[in-house]
Amino acid sequence: MKKTAIIKGRGAQINKHNRFLKNEYFIEDDFLNYCEKEGDNPDNNRTQYIEIFPKTILNKVTSTDIGMAYSMNPYQGCEHGCIYCYARNTHEYWGYSAGLDFERKILFKRNAPQLLEAKLNSKNWKPENIMFSGNTDCYQPIEKKLEITRDMLKILLKYKHPVSIITKNKLILRDLDILKELAQLNLLHVSISITSLSEETRRILEPRTASIKNRLKTVKLLSENGIPVNVMMAPIIPAINNHEIFELVRTVAKLGAVSMGYTIVRLNGAIGEIFTDWVRKTLPDRADKILHQIEDCHGGTLNSSEFGKRMRGEGKISEQVAMQFRLARKKFMSDVCLPPLDYSLFTNDYNSQMRLF
After folding, report:
1. CA atoms of 149 and 93, how far apart (whole Å)
2. Are 192 and 229 in contact (CB under 8 A)?
3. Which one-letter DSSP state was computed for residue 89?
4. Which of 15, 22, 128, 335 could form an S-S bond across to 97 if both were Cys, CB 3.0 to 4.6 Å?
5. CB count in 10 Å sphere of residue 43
6. Pairing between strand 130-132 and 70-72?
7. CA distance 156 to 336
8. Among residues 188, 258, 182, which one has the least CA distance to residue 220?
């Protein structure tokens, strides 16, 4: 089967209608014909950056599937363009599409460092697990210019507050100076997301992320600098990357990773249609196989929302994945683990003032 022409440098190939909006936007053929005649481009595929002004930056996590108390996201939307990203649906709450809009309309929170410091200094704040990028990557391309994540890390170090980070981007190495200080105090866990060891697979699944070579280098350099690294194979997509489990665990263990985790792909909300459109255009020869095997992991549908099952799946394929991971971790990571975070060092301005009395 011949591949359909795709939008280069993007994951999603459509702008799925926002379920919260009454009106739907279409580009009609007569308008496209007019643009072609006039030499105009109706869609330049450029990324837009839009500043927003939130009143809070910490989000309380209530999911029993995720071992963290709070997440914080300096950015909404993500230019990395990972086609499977569960966070796409959140863009609909901002009035945009979970499809191309998620990758091309990036909302940034310049006041995030100030909001974080104010929260840490509040009278009743007690240190709890906070994770960067519970939703979208805190080291996506625009961070190189804005440095919002770096400024937030400085604040966490100032108050000696533990933090976890998950990212796909080698840009995290820019902040090695701060990360090393946090790690020396047992205040840091870093997770590097590596979905595949194949650069070809990476390019179609995650078009604007760091290369596999650079991500593996990031694992190595972080580990060599005393920073505990967990690698997330997230997500595992049947018939695309589930055959790589043993080799990926073996590779990152050699580079110094002390922990490994995974999730099974789940195509919740609008992502089901976006992914289906993408896989039929990008991998038409095995699209049906991929979709059917994903359904096999979720009771016959593309998504499960049930806590305890949605991230691990069910059925024979999910059982095989879980077994492979248990064996791989036992073989390559049996004698290492992530060290516990130290919550005892935290101090804020309120507590410091109280000690005077």
Report:
1. 23
2. yes
3. G
4. 15
5. 12
6. parallel
7. 26
8. 258
Sheet holding 58-60, edge to edge: 58-60, 70-72, 130-132, 163-167, 188-193, 229-236, 259-264
Query: Omega into 113 within 30° of 0, i.e. cis?
Result: no
Instruction: Look at residue 356 in the predicted model and tell me its pLDDT.
Output: 44
Instruction: Answer whether 103's CB lies under 8 Å from 76's CB.
Output: no
148 Cβ contact list (under 8 Å, min separation 6): 74, 75, 108, 109, 110, 112, 113, 138
* Cβ-based burial of 142 (10 A; exposed 0-12, middle 13-18, buried ≥19): middle
The low-confidence residues of the chain, meaning pLDDT below 70, are 1-5, 25-36, 38-43, 64-65, 67-68, 350-357
pTM: 0.91
Coil, strand or helix at 60: strand
Domain map of the chain by residue range?
Answer: 35-339
Domain 35-339 part of CATH 3.20.20.70: yes
271, 308 Cβ separation under 8 angstroms: no
Q: For residue 93, give the nearest of 9, 20, 183, 34 by alpha carbon.
A: 20
- The owner of tokens 């643009």 is 35
Place of tokens 């976890």: 164
